[in-house]
Amino acid sequence: MATFERRGNKWRAAIKKARYSRVTKTFQTKSAAKAWAMKVEMQMDAGVYVNERTQVSHNLSDLIYNYIEELKDTAPVSGSKLASLRRMAREFGADTLSDLTPQYLLNYGKQRRKKVTASTLQKDMSYLKQVIDYGIVIWRLPIAANPVVVTQPTLGSLKLVAGSKRRTRRLQEGEWEKLMAGVGRQHNAESGNNWLSPMVEFAVESCMRQREIHELTWANVDFDKHTIAIESRRTPGRKQGKDHVIPMRKGVREVLLREYEKVGKVTRNRIRLSTRPDHVFGKPATSGAISDRFARVCKRVGIEDLTFHDLRHEGISRLFEDRENNYSIPQVAHISGHKKWETLRRYTQLNAENF
């Protein structure tokens, strides 16, 4: 229950409620004191009140790294999300949770948008929101509301954030030939350094994601059963879940056999082996280098607005257009790894002339 006491020209409000320590605050007018007391009592009744004076400072970078560490055994943070969180941790430096105000986030968003698109910034904010949400529930962070949630509408109204644009890009007539000529002439195939050319072909034939291709090992390839096990498609939250096994289609098998033979040539000729000899595609060392090299090739051969991930769109669309095998939706979904038709449909851009 709130009480009010006049002290000189000011009014002090005091609230004493079960399960909460006594809270006081001084105001210029009694009406302001009453308004504050009513607000605080409502928050206490709802169980969301946090005493500002007891709020503990938390280093934002520590919160991010702790979040990554605690999830590594149940829902590991990886890929672009991991890279984004680590970058934000570096950028936030010594800033604390008490610094994470809406104004702070607006300033951060304005600076970040000078370097990235609105959709990229939206992903960053989404990842940061997840960290703070996790902290409120698990670590009991002393804040009543997630500041990212409070700020997001304003970020949107200022056009600083926006949803990702759905891509529908497929290879146009003549682009496949230009692309293969571009990736094929980069290196001497006999040296074992011509790594992008087979990756491009494999991406279209397998419909696998860039990271999945980069992480594929020979242990996951079964030439006898004509199958490939993809470890990164394990069910989230189930560390011991089974690998996702897809059929080794003819085009995929041809690429794998050539790469397997290449490994033999490299070994026989005593050429320096890749630092990832157990991987099907031993080079490059990082997944990001694939899309970077692909973008440079496209620019050199005059192909505009084509990304390595678009090859997954191309491959999935080709499966639906395959008259010989006449794949069903469940069969295509099994190959691509999609669990919902709505998601699979975004990757399907059919050409009427191929029906």
Provide keyphrases for this structure.
49% helix, mainly alpha, three-stranded antiparallel sheet, 355 residues, 3 domains, 14 helices, hpI Integrase, Chain A
Can you give a write-up of this model?
The protein is mainly alpha-helical and 355 residues long. The chain folds into three domains: 2-49; 60-157; 175-354, Intergrase catalytic core (hpI Integrase, Chain A, Orthogonal Bundle), CATH 1.10.443.10. Helix content is 49%, strand content 8%. The protein is built from 14 helices and six strands. The strands form two sheets. A three-stranded antiparallel beta sheet has the order 1-2-3, covered by helices on one side. A three-stranded antiparallel beta sheet has the order 4-5-6, with no helix packed on it. A hairpin with a 2-residue loop joins strand 1 (2-7) and strand 2. Helix 3 crosses helix 5. The protein is elongated, with a radius of gyration of 28 Å. It starts with a strand and ends in a 9-residue tail after the last helix. The model is unreliable at 186-192, 235-240 and 266-272 (pLDDT under 50).
